[in-house]
Amino acid sequence: AQSVTQPDIHITVSEGASLELRCNYSYGATPYLFWYVQSPGQGLQLLLKYFSGDTLVQGIKGFEAEFKRSQSSFNLRKPSVHWSDAAEYFCAVARSNTGKLIFGQGTTLQVKP
Amino acid sequence: DGGITQSPKYLFRKEGQNVTLSCEQNLNHDAMYWYRQDPGQGLRLIYYSQIVNDFQKGDIAEGYSVSREKKESFPLTVTSAQKNPTAFYLCASSIGTATYSNQPQHFGDGTRLSIL
Question: Which residues on B lie below 8 Å from A89 (Cβ)?
Answer without folding.
Answer: none
